[in-house]
Amino acid sequence: MTSFRPTKAQLAAAHGTTIPDLVAPGLRVLFCGINPGLYSGATGYHFARPGNRFWPALHAAGFTPRRLDPSEQHELPALGLGITNLVARATARADELTDAELREGGELLTQKIERYRPRCLAVVGITAYRSAFGRPKATIGLQSDSIAETAVWVLPNPSGLNAHWTPATLAQAFASLREKFYSE
Q1: Which domain holds residue 31?
Q2: Is residue 2 a part of any domain in this protein?
Q3: Catalytic residue among 15, 35, 52, 74
Q4: I want to staple 38 with a disulfide (CB 3.0 to 4.6 A). Which of 11, 48, 80, 125 is the partner?
Q5: Average pLDDT, the chain
Q6: How many helices (H) and strands (E) does the chain have?
Q7: Torsion-angle region of residue 35: left (phi > 0), alpha (psi -120 to 50) or beta?
């Protein structure tokens, strides 16, 4: 488990920082968060805040052989998985981002997809996806548009703030993606 617990001062100092992408050519699935939270900015790990349900959902859906701690994110590429973000800068809440930042992030993400060509891009956060790609009626699941032959799938935001999705329904949404693009 992640032993580093940032202090309030360290969290405040993380505002606006960035963390490196976990991306490589030939990935089966590239997960794309909205942007790093302050906890992730302070630790340097994606989806690091305790209570974020990304890592439990990844395991429950069958992507990983065990529940990984955010500090073990380096193990993902060997499993054909990667992580990036729509917007690189860390904020306390995703609603601090502007629509212009999300649209610019969508353009940068498209360039990243064209370069690395993962089999599937999985955006975690329907509202951010709609803003970034100008798809106001997009729904959870496989999208009709692809990017450079990469399929696009939208997943619910795994933040603990998204209580509408329970751990079980979140795991089911992740499992649907795995069954379509990972298990073949």
Answers
A1: 24-181
A2: no
A3: 35
A4: 11
A5: 93
A6: 6, 5
A7: beta
pLDDT of 47 over the 70 cut: yes
Q: Which range is least confidently modeled, 3-17, 24-38, 160-174?
A: 160-174
Is there a domain that residue 144 lies in? Answer: yes
- What's the predicted TM-score (pTM) here? 0.95
CB of 102 closer than 8 Å to CB of 49: no
Q: Do the beta carbons of residue 73 and residue 58 sit within 8 Å?
A: no
User: In this structure, is residue 58 part of a structural domain?
Assistant: yes
Question: If pLDDT is split at 50, 70 and 90, which confidence band does 127 have?
Answer: very high
CB proximity list for 113: less than 8 A, separation 6 or greater:
30, 121, 147, 148, 150
Is the pLDDT assigned to residue 181 strictly greater than 70?
A: yes
Domain CATH number, residue 140:
3.40.470.10
Given the residues 46, 52, 85, 157, the one annotated as active site: 46
State mean pLDDT over 84-110.
96
Provide the number of structural domains found in the chain.
1
| 52 belongs to the catalytic site | no
Under 8 Å CB-to-CB from 142, ≥6 apart: which residues?
151, 152, 153, 180
